[in-house]
Amino acid sequence: MAKKASPSSRKLGRGLAALLGDQAPDLARAGAPQTEARASSQPGSLGVDLLSPSPFQPRRDMNEERLAELADSIRSRGVIQPILVRPDPEHKGRYQIIAGERRWRASQKAGLHEVPVYIRQLDDTDAMAAAMVENLQRSDLNPVEEAMGLQRLLQDYSLTQEELAGAIGKSRSHITNTMRLLNLPEPVLVQLREGALSAGHARALLSHPEPVAGMAEVLSKGLNVRQTEDMVARLNKAESAAVKAAHPAPEITRLEEDLSARFGLKTQIRFNGKSGSLKINYSSLEQFEALMAHLTR
Questions:
Q1: Are 109 and 91 within 8 A, CB to CB?
Q2: Which pLDDT score is estimated for 236?
Q3: What separation in angstroms does the CA of 155 have from each of 159, 217, 262?
Q4: Is 101 a catalytic residue?
Q5: Domain residue spans in the chain?
Q6: I need a labelling partner for 130 at 20 to 30 A (CA). Which of 65, 139, 159, 237 fits?
Q7: 168-222: per-residue pLDDT in tens?
Q8: β-strand partners of 85
């Protein structure tokens, strides 16, 4: 029996349908007067000056070099993928970009006066979903932006990770691992956001006892992801051994207590599974002589 979609999942689905073109009746052709656009599955065109950036844009940084490259492509080939817009709810006759802000900005750099668009009637939540998923599917976001976007979709739509995974075409493990990055300290997130660290580096640093110190070592030594994983593994192994030594097994503790009581001196036993050492502490020559007498009886 097929699992029934939750209301929140269906709501997100409407935003995805608007993005992917599954709702032809909601399309509007930006033909003649923009205020009387007709429903159509074909894109129309709008002046670049009639469009405004989306308030739901998950991307915080626009790479100027990549934007210039896109502008060069648009000059020679035009805008291949129409921009998704909706009527601006606050400014009649204007349109709000839902998906395609980079294409719009690059088109302006390329000197275009009009761009191809799809006009959809979307409320705020569907518009946010479409904007987020468009960026996720195009892999246009840095790992921090992606993690924050996934978190916002989960919270705003009250979805499970499984429902979200199915809705956006990502595996559940990808969603889980990406969102875990938000547990890193802010200095690490800054370097991840700026591209100095990769998502692989960041995932390895999640297991580091001091992620900021680990990040500094990665950057100063130029470690790749595998080297970072090895560095963290070695550090955790050493720390685990130190913790184990500091907290001996109960049977070792009992032996220490028995020997301490027998000799009247503090006794320490270190055992690594195969070999070890016995340490008996004395604080005076008299105690040492008493111990030797006890041992040589």
A1: no
A2: 84
A3: 7, 35, 63
A4: yes
A5: 7-174, 186-245, 248-295
A6: 65
A7: 778 899 999 999 999 999 999 999 999 999 999 999 999 998 999 999 999 999 9
A8: 97, 119
Answer yes or no: is pLDDT of 2 > 50: no
Q: What CATH code would you report for 7-174? A: 3.90.1530.30
Contact in structure between 135 and 149 (CB atoms under 8 Å): yes
pLDDT band at 3 (very low <50, low <70, confident <90, very high): low
Return the amino acid letter for 64: E
Residue 12: phi and psi, rounded to 5, are -60, -35
Q: How many CB atoms lie within 10 A of CB 178?
A: 23
Residue 86, CB half-sphere, CA atoms under 13 Å: how many? 23
4 vs 139: CA distance, rounded Å: 29
Which residue is it, tokens 């007498």? Answer: 293
Contact 189, 206 (CB under 8 A): no
Of 36, 90, 101, 186, the active-site residue reads 101
**Residue at 148: amino acid letter:** M
Rounded Cα distance between 136 and 74, Å, is: 22
Strand partners, 28: 119
